[in-house]
Amino acid sequence: MKPADADRLEGAAPTHAAGSPGHPPPGEGKTAYPFATPLPVDEILTPSESTLVRRLTTFASSGNAGPFRDDLWRALETGLSGLGNIAEAIRSYPSLRERRSLGGKERSLQTLVDTLVAGGEHALEWNLPTKSILSRAFGIAKVNFHTSLRYVVEACQHEEVPSLLEAIGSAIEEAVFTRLAEELLASFITTPTPDHALKRLAVLRLVDLWEGRLSLTMDTLAPLLRSAWRARQRAARVFGTLMGTAEIMQLLFADCAHEFVEWFGRRETTPEQQQAFEEFLFDIPYESLQKVRYRMLEDGLSVVDRTKVEEYLGLPPGALRPKVGDPKELYVAFRRRRVRAQYRASTNAPGPRRTAEGYLMEAILRHQLPTA
After folding, report:
1. What is the distance of C-alpha 358 from the center of its chain?
2. In this structure, are residues 172 and 146 in contact, taking their beta carbons and an 8 Å threshold?
3. Which pTM was predicted?
4. How far apart are CA 99 and CA 109, in angstroms?
5. DSSP characters for 190-204?
6. Parallel, antiparallel or unpaired: strands 100-102 and 105-107
7. Which residues, 6 or more positions from 361, have their beta carbon under 8 angstroms from its beta carbon?
8. Using CA atoms, how far apart are residues 279 and 174, in angstroms rounded to an integer?
9. How far apart are the first and last CA of the chain?
10. What are phi and psi of 240, to 5 degrees?
């Protein structure tokens, strides 16, 4: 993989005392909230999220939220206060890259990497530093914050509502995808593999994420995966011949980066990598896809639709209906695929041993390993 490719892959309304405004939104020095925030907004959120909060502040102040104005203020106050407190707690802990001594015991980035790699899956939770736990909590709290804003804006009646909902949806996506990337990197620690160099590099990338959680975006963390996940939640599953051609076209039409699709179409692609890609395309486990193909052969069918696949798999009608617009569904689907892949790896069962994203991330990490 060329360096350029590696870069690509990779309650009641609150009451407030007059004259005690909180920190102003970024870029609006004369604008202030009717409540205090623990930190300035641009020290809690990313630039795009700060812009969204500024828009919502104006939306509420101008009366465009109608009878839901107090609900919007409450959602903003509760969310920003909670996130600000977590952000302050994160900053109160020393850098994970810093070398220090506590009770004569040395702690450093090296000892953190060694501990996480040696501990593996079963000791992971107990070996995580507090700063990383706060970072993970911050990511989930941010999803909840943006979701609460969406609930309120959805109830409003104003011409600006559609564009606000689109911006809120993008913010939720970004937060969920960042959590997804964290889960993906952590899977290299928890998956049985003798390649300790790969595990150590995955830990270093996790440290980058934990340290930069307040400002990091998927465009800098893993732009290719962000593109694929965003397209996947918008692309419909056609099934058809189960070759995946229609699904690939749907991904590309949904602006999936072509490098993602092309990586799984390489001549060097292994059968397991191809199987993992099919799981990604159809959001159905390898074992279920094999069952459907066998039933198609039995029935002499060359194509199937969603209802026929549901029938073959014994699923209730509508179980495979597209779930568009909620990135949390994509996260759940990823975890299902990851758990099944780890089971196959542990039991030596046929099928992919990683998710499609896992195979791609492995290639990215291997490209970043120092050459001998």
Report:
1. 13
2. yes
3. 0.85
4. 7
5. HS--S-HHHHHHHHH
6. antiparallel
7. 9, 10, 184, 185, 188, 222, 225
8. 23
9. 17
10. 60, -120
DSSP state of 240: B
**Cα distance between residue 317 and residue 299, in whole Å:** 20
The number of residues making up the chain comes to: 372
Structure tokens at 198: 């790969």
Output the six-digit token pair for 372. Answer: 């001998």
Q: DSSP string spanning 281-306?
A: HH-S-HHHHHHHHHHHHHHT-S-B-H
* Residues 6 or more apart in contact with residue 7 via CB below 8 angstroms: none
Q: Where are the domains of the chain?
A: 11-221, 223-368
Helix spans in 156-257 (H):
161-190, 196-211, 218-221, 223-232, 245-253
* Tokens 């020095």, located at residue: 29
Distance CA 218, CA 176 (A): 10
Given a contact cutoff of 8 angstroms between Cβ atoms, the answer to whether 182 and 222 are in contact is no
At residue 79, the 3 state secondary structure works out as: helix
pLDDT tens per residue across span 224-277: 898 999 898 888 888 999 988 898 998 998 889 999 999 999 999 999 999 999
CA distance 157 to 131: 41
284 φ, ψ (degrees, to nearest 5): -135, 140
Task: Give Cα separations from 19 to 26, 33, 79 (angstroms).
Answer: 20, 11, 22
Are the C-beta atoms of 280 and 356 separated by less than 8 Å? yes
Nearest CA-CA partner of 114 in 123, 67, 372: 123
Q: What is the mean pLDDT of residues 129-133?
A: 94
Contact criterion met (CB below 8 Å) for 132 and 125 = no
Reduced to 3 states (helix: H, G, I; strand: E, B; else coil), residue 28 is coil
Read off the tokens for 185: 């990197």
